[in-house]
Amino acid sequence: EIVLTQSPDFQSVTPKERVTITCRASQSIGSSLHWYQQKPDQSPKLLIKYASQSISGVPSRFSGSGSGTDFTLTINSLEAEDAATYYCHQSGSLPYTFGQGTKLEIK
Amino acid sequence: EVQLVESGGGLVQPGGSLRLSCAASGFTFNRYWMHWVRQVPGKGLVWVSRVDTDGTTTAYADSVKGRFTISRDNAKNTLYLQMNSLRAEDTAVYYCARELFKDVWGKGTTVTVSS
Q1: How far apart are CA A58 and CA A44, in angstroms?
Q2: Most exposed: A46, B1, B26, B91, by fewest CB within 10 Å?
């Protein structure tokens, strides 16, 4: 099973700050890595697919990069509405797995 | 509107069974692989199972293999998860999701396994 390790687990940030969340896979998964945002009492929302592909309707301040084992989600100019937990997810190898999540708090 | 709506959750005793359903609308259901993902409240997301477009190829997390069965009825635009031999650790919100990259999610249905 491929283990995804996100860092940090928690981050407290101020609006307009740039945030970087990393996801490291225990084995290479190519670009089969996706990012989600989940707010309390809501379903996850897809932000980025296949490491760097943007999703229609998702603000352009969200971007992704990486391949192989190291991936990054970047949020430019953070807004208050970005307070949420962020998850990475790999679909390159069964069983599919998720990272443990990164909780973003807005100061 | 593209939509997934789960149902069938509830309270069940350990060792019992439940069948979850996921009704799809707003898209051509039979063109998409479908998944079940679960989440213990306050905890992370866990992939459970997936099925291909015609229901012939399935896969499961080790924690549910042999107890859960995923299936679909393309005529009814509905995905299912038959859950047998339920354990306390199966207690979670169960979501259905579309495609490998899970671009569409339902709101989830809650399963509680307790005596």
Answers
A1: 13
A2: B1
